[in-house]
Amino acid sequence: MINLIIFGFFAIDSILSNSPELQNAYYGLCFYDLKGERVIYEVNSNKLFTPASNMKIITTATALYFLGRDFHFKTYLHILGTIRENKLYGDIILQGGGDPCLSLDAIERLVNIIKSLNIKEVTGGIMIVDDYFTEERLPIGWSWHYLDAKYAPEISALSLNKNVVSVRIRPMSEGEYANVYIYPQTNYVKLISRIKTSSNSETLIIYRKPEENTIIVDGKINIKNPRDIDIAVKDPGLFTGEYFKERLNASGIKVEKSVERIRSYEMFIKQAQPRVIDSLLSPALIEIIKETNTESENLFAEILLKTLGAQKYKEGSFNAGINALKNFLYICGVDTENVSIWDGSGLSKNNLISPSTLIAVLKFMYNSDLYSDYYSTLPEPGKGTLKARFNGFTDTIRAKTGAIQSVSCLSGYLRIDGKDYAFSMLFNNFTCPTKRILPIQERIIRAFVKEIRKNNSVENSKFLSPVEIMTND
User: Fold this and answer.
1) How far is it between the farthest Cα atoms of the chain?
2) What pTM does this model have?
């Protein structure tokens, strides 16, 4: 007997066909039944798209797979020389190990460690070591016009405060210059402010000069609208060293000489014998990955990428990290000739990934012992980048967002009536504002969930859209 079963996602087809925002755009979608191990809906799922921050799905999965959930970054404090009569005859060395979470409070702890040695003067200076990563601080494909933005900081093995300073603008009286200052206070960054207070209009201009650490603040600020704006610094390693020196001086420990970089610590220790005084430990990798995915931290993703290169290939470069990602994709069953990867965060427009590649990663993680940990790192409704999205779907969706100019993506997991699905939706080359694509993504997810629930009694059938399925009985 021949049974004809009609099972289609016509609602999704209708959304894609009838949304004016998508008429001249490119998109690829794939929905995958993780238990049934079958694609149940797809459109252009093997085509290549710019994934934006959906790249982090690959980067964080690779880091969890190769480094392990309990991996920690270390920052080392050394002294070089001898201590006599409250004076260090030599230098203090700060060695970075890639910790993306090194905070201002951590620097205060290092200052207190030096104070505990009863050192009140350092005849040398602060020497920084950041050669765990190669000198390239920006991946290929990042655009010059946002390189002072907080979401695009330079990458360093010695990072502090997410490699940004906060420019704090406080309105004064009408027509007066606003009170503008930098936090944390540091001489490493020069501030030029010409911004005035206005009772009505606001035209705020703020930027860091290219290749400098000079921040310009100009225009007008509304009298009722104080602002805090984070700006990325140039050369985070030197920023960390300078801030450390300034905090030592402020605490009564005089550091006589300047901050210098040790280009090769391996060569340096062949000639000198520094002594490790203490070390700082980062949070566990699983916590760092949670912040990377939930808050879409580009700095964290790029540090994970370079760390993968350093740990797997003994070279903390972008290229070595990308090779680690491709190695992981190969393990996931992906043909790496059909991907183009240029960074770990997805900020590069040169990246090209298909929905089916992201499904392969999500499927691999689902079937591994890492799934519970990995699932927990993805945003859920009401939190992180899904804070204002998918109301009422808290127990249904965990997904990574992604957005750069003319790109909006969403990939992750769905749990519907006890069954698990992976999905990936990549939208490229639309000309409307991104905020108009987000409701389309949500409508597609809700339509998919509705269709699955309506047909959850259908078993042992092959789903495609639209499709006619013939089975022998």
Assistant:
1) 98
2) 0.93
